[in-house]
User: Fold this.
Amino acid sequence: MVSVINQGNKQLEQSAKSNDFNMFLDSFQPYFEDKTIEQYDRTIETHDKKMKAYEKIFQDTELYHAVKIVLAKEAYKKYRSVAQ
Assistant:
């Protein structure tokens, strides 16, 4: 997921630059879900062990929230620091 953040996303970058973290988190939510589901789909096809880890994320609401917050903070820092 971090590599996806490093690839850049202009919409998230703009959101990070013009909003506080909580507003950014609202923008990040659908992105997080889409990318997590995409990765989950790839995982199903290739690795049972990874699949179990992604299942755990979706089954454990505390873990889901913790992972989302960590990734959103990293994305927020990255997009806030991108030069205009």
The longest helix spans residues 21-46.
